[in-house]
Fold this protein.
Amino acid sequence: MLAKCMERSQRDWSGHISYVTFAYNCSVHSSTGQAPIVVMTGRQPLWNLDLLLSDIDESDYTVPEYTYSVIDGLRLCHEIVREQSKCAVDRMSEWFNSHVNPSSFCPEDVVRVYNPRKEIGKSSKWQLHFSDTAKFVKKLNDVTYIVKGPWKENKIIHVDKLKLVKQFNN
């Protein structure tokens, strides 16, 4: 968002931070269905137009009534956000797992584990990312496995990060 409002020289970025932050905090987040400012404060943001055309007289509320209404609004908002977030997590997990090529491993199968570390001074194109080997221990569900490797403890790894080591018999 900063890139869209800065000058070409990029020297005025600090003057736009408060505006960009406000705009971001007022936009509805796709996974929660709420704007961050509503989740944090319990009320809708006030824009310049709201201040000019305001017809709400807030003096009708007592402090305890206002406090109760804000707390009640926050409680409801957080409940909605939790439900929406759970739905978003389930939806993303289902989508991700649907694009995985299912593999099945037998106990004691040797597998290669994806390790994307980059070595300084070497081209990432030529590095072997499936360099660690491990033994298959247990299948937790369709896409999650426990493997035992050169690490101190067994690791839980997603199936798309594993490849079976093919051994050829003479």
Remarks:
- Strands lie at 110-113, 132-139, 144-148, 155-158, 162-164.
